[in-house]
Amino acid sequence: MRASKTLIPIIARKSNFSVGGTRLDDSCVRVSLGLRLGLPILTEYVCLCGANVEPLGYHGLSCRLGPDRQARHSTMNDFLVRCFQRANIPPIKEPTGLMEEGSLRPDGYTISPWAQGRSLAWDVTFPHTMAERYINLTSQEAGAAALRAADFKNSKYAALAESKIFQPVCIETFGPTDAQTQSFLNELCSRIVEVSGDPLNKSYVKQSFSILLQKYNSFCILDGALKYLSVRSV
Fold it and tell me: Superkingdom, according to UniProt (predicted)?
């Protein structure tokens, strides 16, 4: 994979701090370094979904049976909601009634206008950088998986964008984002700094996203192996 500017370096500067939940335990650090350097993380095993999991552990980051993927999504979305609140922009999660297609609900929506007199709706996703469907793209262009995911989200919520501002928030499992996501996060951080008066908040918010991503990468990879071992031991 080509080197790139990611959301934040894979091992954030505050990774050893307990205050604010930015501490990474030893297993998270090992997984983060293993992913960064392409080193073996665990022993081979057969996932509950039937896939053969190699020592690099990539499968756990996108397994359809992985409950930690939903936990990662919920936690990241909750943090994004708190970021809007810190910017004095009241949001709601998973609003209903914004689209005629009742089954489609974005992950969040700002009650007050975000820009141009329009409220903002967002939807979060975490495409796996090394997934088979993306590897031919990400090996050539950093953030290509995030860009492809953003295009899909924009198409999915095209009707919503007619009256609202729609923002896909696409962060790859290895950290890269697409330009649209990067611009949005920079703007959100700037608004938080404007309210708080503390310029360090921009760095804190981005590092917090990185820490959460690293923690859930570790959970997704290691929990799959633990579930396999638990089933085998029965």
Answer: Eukaryota
